[in-house]
Specification:
nucleotide-binding; alpha/beta; 11 strands; 404 residues; Tub_FtsZ_C; 3-stranded antiparallel beta sheet; globular
Amino acid sequence: MDSLRTGLYGNIFRPDNFIFGQNDAGNNWAKGHYTEGAELVDSVLDVVRKEAENCDCLQVCHSLGGGTGSGMGTLLISKTREEYLDQMMLTFSVFQSPKVSDTVVEPYNATLSVHQLVENADECMVLDNEALYDICFRTPNPSCKSANRYSFFHYKIYNIYIQSIAGPMILWLNGVTLLTVGDLNHLISTTMSGVTCCLRFPGQLNSDLRKLAVNLIPFPRLHFFMVGFAPLTSRGSQQYCALTIPELTQQMWDSKNMMCAADPRHGRYLTASAMFRGKMSTKEVDEQMINVQNKNSSYFVGWIPNNVKSSVFDIPPTGLSMSSTFMGNSTSIEEMFRWVSEQFTVMFRRKAFLHWYPGEGMDEMEFTEAESNMNDLVSEYQQHQDAVTNEVEEEEYDEEVEEN
């Protein structure tokens, strides 16, 4: 917190809005939700009340792997939801990932958090470190001193060291600095800016977060979105990008540009939204969206017509002439929830590390309820994905009947 206050953006925040605690949550969801977090939440809510009067919506940035972001984060979301029932609750949630993990109890923390997010959040932008790392390693980095400027070449060597002592985390490879947390935060910030630009700038085909929710959420519980951004460039090299609407569209829908570890090709899009920024023709944007749907019709459910929404905002991001932000409600995101659920089940059946949670005032029944809710969520996504298969089978059957 001190480094934030004394840093480049410290003057953006009011000094009274910094809330400090004496202890951390120790990677324990229960500690963040019931003990340490509960002691601080009233002070935090007082600050939220003062700021919420001037806000269009409520946004929460948190991670689900540790104790504070998951435990206290979901407590704050729950308490805020009680006070502001008519306000949109938008979260940017960093999930645990299969390859990038540093806490053994992450499956517990993530499952307990999803249990809360299903009930108390309106829109959840799903992010995870693995996908962010992969994007950074694939992006050309002109500042890299290696002969090969594409970091993914080195990533395949699996010889990566992480330094997190006395400063920001830095990835080193054979003496060459490749990646910092600033690079990951840059990726997330571009997406956050794109998603919320509808609140700040006028546009030709404008929308807001409530309209987004209406267009993107066909069923109340299925409000977890895959997000992406185009163009993906390293910091400092934006001016070298030649941008066109077809190029932005191609990048935006590319599975490798998604910021969570789920492959949209393994599921179907229920709905999607594309937000373009910069001076461009709305006619060309609409044509590109229609082309995407026509060429990839098998990746969209057939029982929701016109399920891709597009918006155009005149003000481009700093350093770019145009950009696009993608939000997709895809059934493939159940891969992520399924993986977390499987890890949770393996540990919970053996009661591994479970004793740390009841010690902070939590009941074991909450684990069972959270596990059940997570499994129900996976089943719902799978059900709507299978509905496409049933629809195709019915069409094939009808064709056979007509032929006979």
